Amino acid sequence: MILSLFFKNPSTEINKLADLPFYYYITSVFLLLFFIVCIYYYHKRSKVILPAKFYMRLGYLNKVVPALRKIVTYPSDTIILDFSNVEEMTEGSYMVLLAQAEKSIINGKKIRISSNPPKSNEVINLLRTQKKYLHKNINITNDVIPNAESNQILDPKIVDEIVSELKRIGINEYYQPFYEFLIELIGNATEHGIQHKEINWWLLRYRNAQKKCMTYVFVDMGLGIIKSYNNSGLLRKYMFKDPRQIPIDALYGRLGSSTKEPNRGHGLPQMRKLVEKGYISDFVLITNNVSLQYINEKFIVVKNPNFVGTYFSWTINKDNFIKWKNSKS
Description:
By secondary structure, the chain is α/β, with parallel strands linked by helices. Helices cover about 40% and strands about 25% of the residues. The chain is built from 12 helices and 10 strands. Strands 6-7-8-10-9 form a 5-stranded antiparallel β-sheet, sandwiched between helices. Strands 1-3-5 form a 3-stranded parallel β-sheet. A two-stranded parallel ribbon has the order 2-4. Strand 7 (about 200-210) and strand 8 form a beta hairpin. It is globular, with a radius of gyration of 26 Å.
């Protein structure tokens, strides 16, 4: 009955198949096994080919963010990172790659590095050099929730040390606005980490001798600002509005806190004030499907592929410090 759907005369066709040489059957079996093995290894081992210019910057995110997402979303047990096409990569972008790889490992995957080296010696040196990141990765359970806020927020002494490092660019007096900026930044990441049962953030800082400033990159591998607000139910009025307005409204305190707790939601507005006053420079925020940059005393927002997390970068130079000092006189 079933064969009649494919052949006009099933019995004749079966006889023809029976007359085929034996090696035809062997070849067919081997081909079938070969395809099964290929499919198996495709799902077991997936290669992520990283783009040539691996920058967490506006203009490069359309290639970088999808590559980062594959590290977590590929349906395989082992992810192979292929750096062979990479020509340029910053330290901050590499830190984000490490953070995404860690998220994948937490989800049960294995991370491997392809044997093909990068095209650039600078990238090779970047991969080989041991970096000093500040990093928190804590899975919150019912046992640790009562002590989470007191135990998991970064030690103020460490924040003091970071602020004091500004001496490397000639800022010898304690820069209080930077201390406030860091406390709000890390406090936000910790607060939402507690809410979603996982604290996971990374911080990189280094001196940029060419620009005579300190450069900072911070990434929180949580849900992202927009996703957190959406889960809280506070974005219903944005259903038919441009999503680029959401981070702006969050920075200006128009949304409140996504935790819905009283006396919360002040972190982003406080950070925004420090940026607008010129105490922080080169401010960039990337979260979910939007990117925000402060240019010429204005926040510019553009869309990008979905980055699940929150990325901040900024610089501090002596001019920032002078503006603060002049505001006090």
